[in-house]
Specification:
A hairpin with a 2-residue loop joins strand 2 and strand 3. With 362 residues, the protein is mostly helical. The chain is globular, with a radius of gyration of 28 Å. Helices cover 49% and strands 6% of the residues. It is built from 16 helices and four strands. The protein has two domains: 257 residues, Zincin-like fold, CATH 1.25.50; 65 residues, no CATH class.
């Protein structure tokens, strides 16, 4: 009886690695303890289920950025068909799209292209926020028109974000518009898509701001693109007595990677203003980065004799020369019957030798 070479093959499966988009790994992260993380999620879930529509959409954004997009889709999708207000339809479609169901892009596109102008600005803004321009022509018409400056600014930002250099230059020029409200919007958009070359023009135009609210828009834009003075101003604005300024500062603390604001953001989880609590929770989750759940396995080892006549080679089996049958090595394989947390037991072999696909053993 021929002697067999017994080989023990330890199989280690790495199912996934945490991936970081873009250059996210270059930014500092905060350590968020379990209690604070749960408090953030509670604030956001309460906001999502609250009666105020736009804070609920902001809470949906926070949950998505915190890694709970599926929860957002499951909650908002049934609501969308029953909403008749075009502006709110844009809000629902935007947050469902942000959470991962891009089929709702069409809703925003159709509203932007429609004859009723009531939802046009919200549609352009929502498409900008989810990095889309719709079918293109409707956004281009919004960019070309001059009757609605906010609509023009949103369309300009959407096109610039998709690589239209002429639109980006137009946005920079619109930063000098006479209207303080329009300048604030232009600064906000430029903060989202601009770069450090915009620090000087933002600083120059900020000198024209007539009030603290308008100035805050410039300060936050500067913070996002990396200006130290802007970052210090954002930190101060988190303690503003003006709830709108305080809320916007909390919103953009995450975008600015302002890890120095952590203590203040934690305190704002108890802010009396709902939207301020929501935005603080969002930025804390953003600053902490994704919550990595450890992968756990339990392996029970079993030996199985392989038939050398019908299963003489497989890329997953380690073999060494030894006594052979009909010129082919006889081997043994050490199989790991893997138990996955949450998976409910082991994976049965797909072929009669436990090697995988049946065709591979023929």
């Amino acid at each position: 009886m021929p002697a067999f070479v017994r080989v023990s093959l330890m199989i280690a499966a790495m199912l996934f690695l945490p991936l970081r988009a873009g250059t996210a790994g270059d930014f500092p992260r905060i350590a968020l303890d379990a209690t604070t993380r749960e408090r953030c999620l509670l604030v956001l879930r309460m906001g999502l289920h609250g009666e105020d529509f736009w804070p609920a959409m902001h809470a949906a954004e926070g949950l998505t950025l915190g890694g709970h997009g599926r929860e957002v889709i499951e909650f908002l999708t049934p609501k969308a068909p029953h909403e008749t207000d075009d502006q709110k339809r844009c809000g629902l479609a935007r947050e469902i799209a942000r959470a991962g169901d891009r089929s709702t892009i069409r809703v925003m596109q159709d509203i932007l292209a429609g004859e009723n102008s009531y939802g046009h600005t919200h549609a352009a803004e929502s498409l900008f926020k989810v990095f889309e321009i719709g079918d293109g022509p409707a956004m281009r018409r919004a960019f070309d028109q001059t009757g609605n400056m906010k609509l023009k600014l949103m369309a300009t930002g959407a096109l610039a974000r998709r690589g239209d250099t002429a639109a980006l230059q137009s946005l920079r020029e619109l930063l000098a518009t006479d209207s303080p409200v329009d300048r604030s919007i232009a600064a906000w958009v430029l903060g989202q898509i601009g770069d450090r070359s915009d620090i000087e023009r933002l600083t120059t135009q900020m000198a024209r701001c007539p009030d603290a609210s308008t100035r805050a828009s410039f300060e936050h834009a500067l913070a996002i693109i990396g200006d130290e003075a802007g970052l210090r101003a954002l930190e101060r604005n988190l303690s503003s007595s003006d709830e709108a300024i305080r809320t916007y500062a909390a919103t953009f603390a995450g975008d600015a990677h302002a890890v120095g604001t952590t203590a203040r953001l934690k305190a704002m989880l108890e802010d009396p203003f709902t939207d301020a609590r929501i935005r603080a929770a969002q930025s804390l989750l953003v600053l902490a980065g994704p919550h990595i759940v450890p992968f756990e396995t339990k392996a029970d080892v079993a030996f199985q004799e392989l038939n050398a006549k019908s299963c003489w080679f497989h890329p997953r089996v380690a073999m060494f020369p030894g006594h052979v049958t009909e010129g082919r090595p006889a081997i043994r394989r050490k199989m790991a019957l893997r138990h996955f947390r949450g998976g409910g037991g082991s994976r049965p072999p797909l072929c009669h030798h436990g090697l995988g696909r049946r065709a591979a053993c023929n």
